[in-house]
Amino acid sequence: xxxxxxxxxxxxxxxxxxFTIWLFFMMLSNRWFLFEQNWFMSVTMAFGSFIAGASSExxxxxxxxxxTLMYDISPSVARNFSLAIQSVGMTAASFVIIRSKIKIEYxxxxxxxxxxxxxxxxxxxFLTSLFPPAYVKMLFVTFWLSFGLILFYTNxxxxxxxVDKLPKMARMEVLILLLIGLIGGGIxxxxxxxxxxxxxxxxxxxxxxxxxxxTPTSVVAxxxxxxxxxxxxxxxxxxxxxxxxxxxxxxxxxxxxxAPLGAYVISKRTRSFISRFLYVIILVQFVGAxxxxxxxxxxxxxxxxxxxxxxLFFFGVLSFSKKR
Length: 324
Description:
Layout: H1 2-29, H2 33-54, H3 60-70, H4 75-99, H5 106-126, H6 133-157, H7 171-191, H8 195-206, H9 211-237, H10 242-267, H11 271-293, H12 297-322
């Protein structure tokens, strides 16, 4: 029993420190009324933080569609909040992943993270004003649907074989991973998350890396990317507003434990469970968007093009991997 306590205590101590700092701030500033106004965000992130730690979809993958689709919150606020809350929750999950020695793949993590930092910075300055809100919402759910369909095909129908370790990377392969990180960081700059599942999708299709390894690796990548994005909007761009701050404050005590719990729970599950868990998340997001937005006309055509482009992209990556 004492050994068990000894092994758990170093994991929860930093989380308790974050919680204590938050608690003192709330007591000194007397902002408890924020829960009465924004309780729905705490509930949202109770689910979102668990999914953030347990899958290649960041907490923003739940927060962004719920905020923009169900509560009609602007995509810019949803994005800023997603980056801010993931900088707490997914960092806490990353700490538990690394401290618990849950296996991650550094050959994939390092170049993707470096590329992602540049993608986040460039995207935050040059991409965020280019897309109308409804198009951003449909881009989010439709592109990940294309990946979910390909992953389902390769795992359930084609019985994809996986590996637990990547081969030594050639220089060109490292450059491609940097590019994947750059694109993923750009997606995250629009949606609040994206580098995690974009890099996850590429690495699992291209190298057949097991979802059990790719998932915690993607969590760490998204944690770093979220910190870069949060600091960029807070200090450089200066558009992190009061609304995002209030949402952030009511969600910190939830995500600081929810995301690590998700990371721990999923590390005990099988690869097939992780894949099926991801299918469900992606499908629920897409169906929810279709029911709430009811895309018609050019938006419906746009969604169809994104779906087709995503299928072609992931099929291309998959086909290329078979030639290795």
